[in-house]
Write a structure and sequence with these properties.
- Helix content is 35%, strand content 7%.
- By secondary structure, the chain is α+β, with helices and mostly antiparallel strands.
- The protein has a four-stranded antiparallel sheet with strand order 1-2-4-3.
- A hairpin with an 8-residue loop joins strand 3 (124-125) and strand 4.
- Helix 5 (55-69) crosses helix 6 and helix 5 (55-69) runs parallel beside helix 8.
- The relative contact order is 0.16.
Length: 234
């Protein structure tokens, strides 16, 4: 199998090609090398369930978590807000082992154990012990990993419109969704929006924000609120 086809070949049925095509190329190459090195009995039981996600898709997942867990604090433990996930950066993949993220078959357990035992050889690791299916490049969380962008240099990985679409999707829910200050600052510049304000000790403060004429649908519905958290699942 040609190198460029390895991950597409194990992409789970029904998942978009962009989950693989928009991955950071260095990360993608390392995962390809790992899969290629896996014994056939292991490789045949590994699928990619998720890869590079747009901020819009991340916002949909975060809204679902808000509905499920009832609060930002609880939702943030399980799903990152749009723009804060390694998936949005193209530096994370969620795997399935024999069809499950948490395998319970002999083949699935063997596949999971093999990738966990061998990931480091390919500069990869599983950063969250409670998500044994979530793999990233070493250095993704301490700033030492240098992203190279997607393999196709013409691929779009973060135009302002993409980020705004994600924020619009998040904000179209019934309650305001906190937006990371680092992400919002860039958006404010690119979209002509004013920034939000943090209250004492980082407490969230709501602030109405002027919306440009071309703002995505959903930004008109709710004020933005701001809070800063760095923990939680990605």
């Amino acid at each position: 199998m040609a190198d460029e086809d390895i991950l597409m070949g194990i992409l789970a049925s029904g998942q978009p090609d962009s989950y693989v095509n928009l991955l950071d190329d260095r990360f993608r190459s390392n995962v390809e090398r790992m899969i290629e090195a896996a014994p056939p009995g292991v490789r045949d039981h590994i699928k990619i369930m998720s890869g590079r996600r747009s901020n819009k898709r991340q916002a949909q997942l975060f809204r679902a978590a808000l509905r499920k867990y009832g609060s930002y604090r609880e939702a943030r433990r399980y799903v990152a807000p749009p723009g804060k996930s390694q998936h949005n950066k193209g530096t994370a993949i969620d795997l399935r082992f024999d069809g499950k993220t948490e395998p319970d078959t002999k083949a699935g357990l063997a596949a999971r154990d093999w990738v966990h035992a061998n990931a480091k050889k390919f500069d990869l690791y599983f950063p969250m012990e409670w998500e044994e299916w979530h793999i990233e490049p070493i250095g993704s969380r301490d700033g030492t990993y240098k992203r190279t962008g997607p393999r196709d240099p013409s691929a779009n990985t973060g135009r302002p419109s993409d980020h705004l679409a994600g924020l619009g999707a998040a904000l179209s829910g019934t309650e305001p969704v906190p937006v990371p200050i680092s992400r919002l600052s860039g958006l404010a510049i690119s979209a002509g929006l004013t920034n939000t304000v943090l209250g004492p000790a980082g407490a969230p403060m709501r602030q109405n924000i002027p919306v440009p004429r071309a703002a995505p649908r959903g930004l008109l519905a709710s004020p933005l609120s701001e809070t800063v958290h760095s923990s939680g699942r990605q």
